[in-house]
Structures are given as C-alpha cells and as structure tokens.
C-alpha cells in the first residue's frame, strides 16, 4: 500500500481563503480542482440548463411527448430499475408527473430474478396489458433494443431516460434522454438516472409554461423532489461533479430543514440516523442500502412505495420492513463474503501477489448479494473482481449471474466487451460502467470467462495500478483536531470523484487492542502532533508498529455528553 498526499495548488487555496472560505476547506477544495469560490455556489440557479445548445439531447422532444400525453390524459407507466437510483428515479417520475398534471401515472418494477436487467420484450408486453399509452424507462433502457421494439410494435409510445453507456445500437424510442448517448453536449456525463428524470421534469414544466398551462407564478415547485435526487445520486456512487454536488447539496439542505417525504424521514429513523445533521454518508451507507436490500432479496416495490407515500404511519411500517430485509441481507452477505474470500485467497499462495483479476462462483451464493461481495473482495485484494451465483429464474438454472467491481485504471464494461469479442458466446449479456458491471454466462463457460477476464486484466494493468494507493490531504494541523471542525467537514458534499477528507502523517501508537463481537476491529490510542487521540480501524486485525504512517478520516465520538475527535483509520504504510 502506498499513501500519497494530493497536490494542493497554493494559488487556488490562497484565492479561496481570500474569498472567505475556511482555511482548511480552502486547502481541501483546491486539492479537488476547485479554483474559485463561485464554483462552490450550490444555488439552484447554478444548475446546468436542461435545454439549449449545451442541454440534454432529446430532452425537448421528451418534454413535448409528455406534455401531449398529459393534455390527452394518457396512461403513463414508468419501468423502474431495482436499485436505489432506479427506485428514487421512479418516485421522482411518479411524483413529478402528478405535480405537473398527469392524472394517470403508474409504475412497474422488473424482478431481478425472472426479468433480469432493463426493459425486456416480456416487460413491454406487461406494460401494454396494463392499458398504457406510453412507457417511460428510468435508470435503464439505453441498451433495450428488443424491449423498445416490442413496445413500439404493441402501439406504445416510448421515452427512454437513462445514464448508462449505450451499446452499438440505440433503441428506436420516440425520445431518448441520456447524457452518455452519442452527440449529447450536456457537460455532466456523470448524472445518475434520478438526475436525468428530474431534468426531464424541468423541461416538461418549461414546455407546459410555453403552452400556457401555467406561468412562473402558478407553476408547481419541483425542488421538493431534490431530496430523492440527492439520495439516488449518492447511493449510485456516480462521480460528484459540480452539477451533481449542487443537486446533492440542495437535497441535503431540505432534509436538514425537515422538508422531506415521509418515507425519507422514516428511513432516517429506522437507520438510527439524525436528519437535522444529515450527510452524504447517511445516503450511501444508511438509507441507500435499506432501499437496495428490497431489490436484492424481495421486491423493490417496497422501496418505491416507501418513497411515494405521504402517510407517516405507512412510511414507518415500510421503513421497518426495509430495515428487516437489510438485516437479512447483511446475514447472507456475511456468510457469502467469508466463503468467497476463502475461494479468492485459494487462487494464490500467501507469499504471492493475487492474480490480476478474480472470478469466483459457488452454487450456494445468492444472486442478490453478489455485487456487495465482489466489492468487499475488491477492497481487500485490490483486484477487479467478479462474483457469480446460479440464476434462480425458471428455465435459466444453468446460467450464472455475475456482478463485478473494479479498481481505478481498469474499465470493467470495456473489459467485458473485449472478452465477448474474443470469446463469442461465452458472455450471454453484459452491461454497466467503468467501476461496476454485470454479466451472464453459461455455467459450463465459467472457466473460460475466468481465464479470459484475467487475461484482459494481465494486459491492461501494470504494477503501479495493481498497488493500492490511498490519496490523502496530507498532515492535519493540531488546531483543526476539534469536534466543531469535524462538524464543518461533515456538512459539505463529499463522495465519488470528490473524496471525503483523508489526512496522513506519522503517529506514535501508545496501545492497541481488538474490539467488537468478532474481535475484528483494531482500537488504537495514539499520539498525534503531541496530543493523545483515539482511533479505530474497522475490519483490521493485524497489530501496528510503534511508529507508523497512517491515513485517517475524522469523526466525533460522543460519550456521556462529551464529544471527542476520533480518527477512522483508512490504511497504514509501514
């Protein structure tokens, strides 16, 4: 492991500080590419415009399509996805379309097991059977060439809203809104599916204004939907570029002020988190997993209903159900993770480096949890990792469903594309992003996939990429080791591509012991810049030397009314 301090451009840090930004925040922002204070303006007026020369391709056509549908009182059905981004995008779509006058809006969620991913021909038929006039996809559809063709053949109008990378052929939809489709000039290529749907609603409202349905004074407010946009954006681990950070900041402000749907409030309560001091961490590690658990083990309808209801009692009941499913998910994941890690570690001797890529399969693995387990192995071994489970879909018993997670410098979807080209027929279908992707293979093809995937990794990855690196913000001045400073940092928007502050310096270890029920966390007492500090390294059991270079984040430990700074250790360079 290498701990590397980020470059902090002194001029940018100085300019931010001179503009009134807190000195520590000025340093952190400068290291993340912020050059001027106005870039930190998270007002709604600073959001990228939906339409125009730099707007989203297809969004004006989508707005006209929806405005016509509302005028004709057509039946609209949203086809959602079964993760948190898909669930929030669906809730934003249903709530937003109803706000803008649609009288007849419903949704359908594919089943992870029987339907697989995206809009399939069978789902299109189910939408048609429910009497729909228009099918709207959220967080999926860009690769659903056959599903869209079936929907069109059944007489449905089709609007695709998505953010995933397109394949070689685009579906023949009436309109497509996706920042990653060819020819789209929209600057934020990292917008989540929920952000794309929110932008479609902004364009629809503008179209309805132009048609005289309402004016600037009477138009419905869409900003209450930003709480859902913020949750889905962070939970989908998309890059928090400037536009995404503004969307998330706006959602956080509303939640902290107590302005949120009943379901979000209930999820905060079920997770034991405090909405008045909500952070991006709450979205990614408390609320998001509880919604995702429904899609993994049960039915994402539970998650969407929780986000749609305005009934406090119903929201509380649904949030409690989601919390219970998440506990079950954690139990399943724990056993699977141990087994998968043993299998991964059996691929190499203790004295050896792990292979360049890792693929594991066990007939007893649960297909709803393979992605999380792949992420855990990737985190520990720092290798692109795929975990496969046998499909439980009827008639697909001999197919394996795999979920992969990658490391910086290795584009997972492109790697799958190359495997598919080199070994036609081995991958039955695939899709995804640079850092996360999924694929289906026949069980008898697993060994071929494992070798082919490892071969691509061997060709693409060098020693530097295969070495785990932790980028930090360098030393932490002792005057900033205070609870109020930690609170200040926590209020900011951090996440993928805009990393939370991590500091690094050499410290003296005074004492260390294993804690937790399984004795799998290392509790430390250390001396930092002459001052005693408590620290904990979750999931780490190996003892540290008396002096060591630590990478750590800041947290506050509250005990009997006293708030003390605690270091959360991220890594050590011995």
Structural class: alpha/beta
Q: Could you list the spans in which at least 5 consecutive residues all have pLDDT below 50?
A: none
Biggest sheet layout = 5 strands, parallel
First and last CA, distance: 9 Å
Tell me, rounded to a whole number, the average pLDDT: 95
Which geometry do the CA atoms define? globular
Strand percentage, roughly? 15-25%
What is this structure's SSE topology?
Blueprint: E1 2-5, H1 10-18, H2 23-31, H3 59-71, E2 76-79, H4 84-99, E3 105-108, H5 121-129, E4 134-138, H6 145-153, E5 157-161, E6 175-177, H7 193-210, H8 226-235, H9 242-256, H10 262-271, H11 280-297, H12 301-308, H13 312-345, E7 358-361, H14 370-381, E8 385-390, E9 399-405, H15 412-422, E10 427-432, E11 436-442, H16 446-460, H17 463-466, E12 469-472, H18 483-491, E13 503-515, E14 521-528, E15 531-537, E16 547-559, E17 562-573
Parallel strand pairs: 1-12, 2-3, 2-4, 4-5, 5-6, 7-8, 15-17
Antiparallel strand pairs: 8-9, 9-11, 10-11, 13-14, 13-16, 14-15, 16-17
